[in-house]
Design goal:
Layout (H helix, E strand, L loop, with lengths): L14 H9 L5 E3 L20 E3 L7 E3 L2 H10 L5 E3 L5 E3 L23 E3 L20 E3 L20 E3 L16 H22 L3 H11 L3 E3 L1
Parallel strand pairs: 1-2, 2-6, 6-7, 7-8, 8-9
Antiparallel strand pairs: 3-5, 4-5
């Protein structure tokens, strides 16, 4: 597995450190979040086997009014950076991000094994058409950028099951977008997930209810 740690101070701070596991064939994930980089590193394209690429480094504040999530955070993540609000909700603090790119290289289309691409919290104003050539891409996270539209051929991403585009000034959706298969499938799946989550809340199994909600966020369209 790629490195994971609860303590952010333990995370490798150089690009070479972050690439060590995939270079050693121990993982197919590249996580570039919280690195002090000035642009998208070309070294990523040396590893066409990558399946998960995370560049998003900024986690936007999330206001949580639901008592279920408050209890879950208190019980399982007592040190999580949150701030109490006057209305009784909590606000998750920003995670400081370092890499902020304003352009995704056209070469992104070479990474045909990508299943997940995380570009949250950047300064992207557009995406290359080559992105639509990723046949295995299932999850695409684009929130908190400056996108006004998506690539013209976006509907060619037939494997997509999750698209997150919150907090972008989207003005136009490409042709065929609303007919993409994952949107209709998600509507039915979400109804089932909502029912399961509610039943677990009634049983006061808040941890399991939270887990279902998190899994739901891995599917569908999030505007």
């Amino acid at each position: 597995m790629y490195y994971f740690s609860d303590d952010e101070d333990d995370q490798p701070e150089s690009l070479d450190d972050r690439l060590w596991h995939i270079r050693s064939a121990l993982s197919t994930t590249i996580d570039l979040s919280l690195l002090d980089l000035k642009a998208f590193p070309d070294e990523v394209f040396d590893y066409p086997q990558v399946t998960v690429l995370r560049i998003g480094s900024l986690v936007p504040p999330a206001k949580i009014a639901d008592q279920v999530y408050r209890r879950f955070l208190a019980q399982n993540y007592p040190n999580y950076p949150i701030r109490e609000q006057a209305d009784g909700s909590v606000l998750m603090q920003d995670t400081p991000g370092y890499i902020t790119i304003d352009r995704l290289p056209d070469r992104i289309g070479e990474l045909t094994n990508l299943v997940e691409l995380d570009l949250r919290g950047q300064q992207l104003t557009q995406l290359p058409e080559s992105l639509c050539s990723l046949p295995n891409l299932k999850r695409l996270y684009l929130s908190d950028n400056q996108l006004t539209t998506l690539p013209v051929r976006f509907s060619r991403l037939r494997s997509l099951v999750c698209l997150e585009v919150r907090d972008n000034p989207i003005q136009h959706w490409p042709d065929g977008f609303w007919q993409m298969p994952f949107i209709e499938k998600y509507k039915a799946w979400l109804q089932e997930a909502d029912a399961r989550e509610y039943a677990l809340q009634m049983q006061k199994d808040y941890k399991a209810a939270y887990a279902i909600r998190q899994e739901a966020l891995r599917w569908g369209l999030h505007l």
